[in-house]
Design brief:
It is a single chain. It is built from ten helices and twelve strands. By secondary structure, it is of the alpha/beta class. Strand 8, helix 5 and strand 9 form a beta-alpha-beta unit. Helix 3 packs across helix 8.
Length: 286
């Protein structure tokens, strides 16, 4: 009887181990076999990730992503990987990673504890904050002035969650209006159907710069959230995460990061001390 129980326990243990092993993704092997990598990206998040000339992805995050893809290709012995770029909103991109439709995600996606329940993340790629954009001719000077007004925000984002929390606690008469596209939010602000538009501050700068008259928009000084950007990855795939972080380390330790920052964000000046510290802290020693 005892021998039977021990045998059953061993068999059960082996079965459980096998089940766990089968559930862990092996993205590198998949990429190596297919010679293709599927990458989710944001199509309208200038200057981080957007559809540029010739319908090609472009931006700060895309430049980082291309260096990561090249490093992955070398690691699996396929230096000329075909890249399938898959545009989507933040929830859509995270879903692509969670379901295996995409192998890597590049955009302006914030790492959060809630998202870590479904996907993993690389080391940080940028640090931003949530802000509020208003019309320059509006009478508002602070968040408090927006009590009872309408604030548009991109749905499914960390900014939406934080804004809702602020409104529920301090501005109960304010209406939060979720929108499906950042340009829709700016259009609402411009037309007067919304009194403000909330989003990541760097992205708000990009949206204002694309407007017909950028001088029509200003940003409130207050910050409503902390936004640590990272690349979303399949959950549990430590081998892929290692290669991604190895590639990011190489970029951060070289002149590449200076080139990428200057190309897409140089108009804002030099990296902030906090961002410079992030580049240093996420340069992982061998």
């Amino acid at each position: 009887m005892k021998r039977f129980l021990i045998g059953a326990l061993v068999a059960g243990s082996l079965f459980a181990s096998g089940a766990i092993a089968e559930s862990v993704p092996n993205t590198l092997a998949k990429v190596k076999a297919s010679k293709v990598i599927n990458v989710a990206f944001a199509g309208n998040a200038l200057p981080f990730s957007f559809v540029g000339t010739n319908n090609e992805p472009a931006g700060y995050s895309i430049d980082l992503c291309k260096r990561v893809i090249a490093s992955i290709g070398k690691a699996v012995g396929q230096p000329n990987l075909k890249v399938n770029w898959l545009a989507g909103s933040t929830p859509e991109r995270l879903q692509m990673i969670a379901t295996g439709k995409a192998d890597l995600e590049c955009g302006n996606t914030s790492q959060t504890l809630a998202r870590l329940a479904n996907v993993d993340f690389s080391g940080l790629t940028f640090i931003d904050a949530g802000g509020i954009m208003i019309r320059a001719d509006s009478p508002f000077h602070s968040m408090a002035d927006l009590d009872g007004k309408k604030i548009a925000v991109l749905k499914g984002t960390t900014t939406e969650a934080r804004l809702n929390a602020i409104v529920q606690k301090h501005m109960v008469n304010t209406r939060v209006v979720p929108v499906g596209d950042a340009n829709e939010g700016v259009a609402m602000l411009e037309s007067g159907s919304a009194d403000a538009y909330a989003g990541d501050k760097i992205k708000l700068v990009g949206l204002a710069a694309q407007a017909k008259d950028p001088a029509k928009f200003v940003m409130l000084a207050e910050e409503i959230s902390f936004e640590p950007y990272a690349m979303a990855l399949p959950r549990g795939d430590s081998a892929l995460r290692l290669e991604v972080n190895r590639a990011l380390t190489q970029v951060y330790l070289s002149d590449d990061i200076e080139t990428i920052f200057a190309r897409w964000l140089g108009v804002l000046g030099r990296p902030t001390p906090l961002l410079s510290a992030m580049y240093l802290l996420y340069s992982i020693p061998e």
